[in-house]
């Protein structure tokens, strides 16, 4: 796992479980919209600064200086001309529970997400982001720098490294690196399932990269822990990639929902990059079985994937990405 963890994570007190009967399950797991200015100082005291109008002006100034005069940054600069430079400036392209910022001590870019203190998402992220799980090489969650609890408001701010959603960079990618990225996706699903966690929203849009060969899952809003449950089931699933049994309104095995979604992720990644690997298509086929009980476990998928890759000739692994720029 790519690690860049804050020391504050180790000393956090135990949070109440989202399964506590005194809390409304729907309410605590609903996406929240914090009043960001009210928490600005709290975040600053923990070493993080939210983006301001000045930051955005500087960003677009650099963009316009490094590109042509037609760069859209010039328009933004004009639009911000009359605004207070110190005012917070949310990214209009992000959900209201997300805010961009920087770590004060070194200027590293961060993404801050606000979730309910008793949400399933916080329960899962906190588990995956503290020792010993955070140090497990199979754990491919995005590095969390801090978890800041505001108990009076029932809010937690999850401070993460800022990674990119761009699956393929400007540098040409070869098949070996593409398969390495897919393996991280499969391996993390195995890691979660072995700890009785179903992600329940595996998709390309929830996959980020640091441009250094590391890939990570994000967005655990729908994730659930099934500790102590032998045969868990889920009803009314509403994730990005919906398997046929959920389309029919049936209850299903949450782990097999992840298997289906992982197969779709692989297919979409192949389409996006331009790779077509017959061996990979054969691997995916049983993962898309109409009947969830006949889909393999993600552990079996990982084992089959490793076996498949071991049979590929070196000249095939060196093939460059057809859709690389």
From TrEMBL:
Q: Which domain of life is it from?
A: Eukaryota
Stretches the record annotates as Disordered: 1-26
Which ranges does the record mark as transmembrane? Answer: none
Q: Which GO terms describe its molecular function?
A: ATP binding; protein serine/threonine kinase activity
Matches recorded under InterPro entries: Kinase-like_dom_sf (IPR011009), Prot_kinase_dom (IPR000719)
UniProt record, GO biological process: intracellular signal transduction
- Coiled coil stretches, renumbered: none
**Segments of skewed composition (Low complexity):** 7-21
Claim: Nucleotide-binding is one of the keywords in the record? yes
Q: Which PROSITE patterns match?
A: PROTEIN_KINASE_DOM
Look up the record and report any one GO term of the cellular component aspect.
cytoplasm
- Please state every residue range assigned to the domain named Protein kinase: 48-325
Q: Which UniProt keywords apply?
A: ATP-binding, Kinase, Nucleotide-binding, Transferase
SUPFAM superfamilies (UniProt xref): Protein kinase-like (PK-like)
List the protein's name: MAP/microtubule affinity-regulating kinase 4
Which organism is this entry from?
A: Hypsizygus marmoreus
């Amino acid at each position: 796992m790519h690690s860049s963890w804050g020391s504050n994570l180790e000393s956090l007190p135990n949070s109440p479980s989202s399964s506590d009967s005194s809390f409304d399950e729907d309410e605590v797991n609903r996406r929240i919209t914090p009043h960001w200015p009210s928490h600005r100082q709290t975040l600053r005291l923990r070493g993080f600064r939210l983006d301001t109008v000045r930051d955005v002006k500087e960003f677009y100034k650099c963009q316009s200086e490094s590109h042509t005069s037609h760069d859209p940054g010039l328009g933004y600069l004009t639009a911000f001309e009359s605004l207070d430079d110190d005012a917070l400036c949310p990214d209009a392209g992000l959900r209201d529970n997300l805010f961009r910022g920087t770590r004060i001590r070194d200027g590293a870019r961060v993404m801050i997400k606000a979730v309910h203190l008793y949400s399933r998402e916080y329960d899962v992220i906190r588990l995956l982001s503290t020792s010993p799980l955070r140090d497990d090489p199979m754990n491919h969650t995005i590095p969390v720098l801090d978890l800041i609890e505001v108990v009076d408001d029932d809010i937690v701010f999850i401070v993460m490294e800022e990674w990119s959603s761009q699956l393929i960079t400007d540098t040409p990618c070869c098949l070996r690196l593409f398969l390495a990225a897919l393996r991280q996706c499969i391996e993390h699903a195995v890691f979660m399932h072995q700890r009785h966690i179903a992600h329940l929203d595996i998709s390309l849009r929830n996959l980020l990269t640091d441009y250094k060969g590391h890939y990570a899952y994000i967005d655990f809003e729908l994730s659930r822990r099934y500790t102590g449950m032998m045969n868990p089931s889920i009803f009314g699933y509403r994730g990005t990639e919906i398997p046929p049994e959920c389309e029919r309104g049936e209850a299903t095995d949450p782990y097999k929902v992840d298997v289906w979604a992982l197969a779709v992720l692989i297919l979409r990644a192949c389409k996006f990059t331009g790779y077509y690997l017959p061996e990979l298509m054969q691997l995916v086929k049983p993962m898309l079985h109409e009947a969830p009980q006949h889909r393999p476990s993600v552990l079996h998928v990982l084992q089959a994937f490793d076996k498949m890759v071991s049979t590929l000739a070196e000249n095939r692994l060196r093939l460059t990405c057809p859709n690389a720029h």
